Amino acid sequence: MTSVVASADRPAANAAPERTKIVQAKIAIEGVTKEFATEAGDTFLALTEVNCAVADREFVSLVGPSGCGKTTLLEIVAGLQAPTRGRVLMDGEEIEGPGPDHVVIFQQYALFPWRTVAANVEFPMEVAGVGRGERRERALEYLKMVGLDGFADHHIWQLSGGMQQRTALARGIACAPKVMLMDEPFSGADAITRELLQDLLAKLRRATRQTIIFVTHSVDEAIRLSDRILVMGTRPGRIVSTFDVTDDLRAHGDRVSELRDAIWSVLRDEIVPMAEDEGRT
User: Fold this and answer.
1) How far apart are CA 27 and CA 239, in angstroms?
2) For 250-280, what is each residue's pLDDT tens digit?
3) Vertex 169 angle, CA 163 and 173, to 5°
4) Triad 168, 171, 176: Cα angle to 5°
5) Which DSSP string do the residues of 204-231 spell out, in sequence order?
6) Would you say the pTM of this structure is higher than 0.85?
């Protein structure tokens, strides 16, 4: 049995290094390494020996500099890429490809413009063989959850960007996946829409209690949404620190500020040397 060990890799305002909690893992990432061949015939090491576990119903964010392999790692968990070495398990079974029990919501909404909003939400249920009447009923329920119950028969091109992202969220939960994988889903939204989408995701998560792995460049977004934040380093990509986040912490502005500073301290340790190396090339 793979277990999750929740702790902090370095002292931080929210960290309690002496306290360890072990629970069964929903997702276990074991020794994942990813190499790519370059045009010059060399090998580029994108990820090295990534080991972590995500508990059932846990919300974990991956934060790190651009190019550190966050999306690559997420796609390996999704089964869209194979690791060069290592493996990813869900409920103890190795993930060998995409599946309806671990869905991905990308930066691009990947909606079908020729379908109505409801028909987009129905699509994964249609693929799964759910009957027409049940599909429609469930789609309307999910659209109501994301505040789009009045737009079921609109087409995608008639919606704003924020409404399209809400449609993508409704379609994601329509699959009733065990794990939802989200790759910077709100990065293209304006500041106001982004906050509203964060509120919506938090609400959906409370309602569905799904396990979520969330990639973001925003430290504040990660603090707002997560149970745990994994900070990734670069060259090669790896997990360098872990920070726990609780509702109690979020309720105290001073503790949030201390946590933000601690995470940024780790990120600076990764970003500054990388920038200095680039300046010498």
Assistant:
1) 16
2) 999 999 999 999 999 999 998 866 555 555 5
3) 145
4) 135
5) HHHHH--EEEEEES-HHHHHHH-SEEEE
6) no
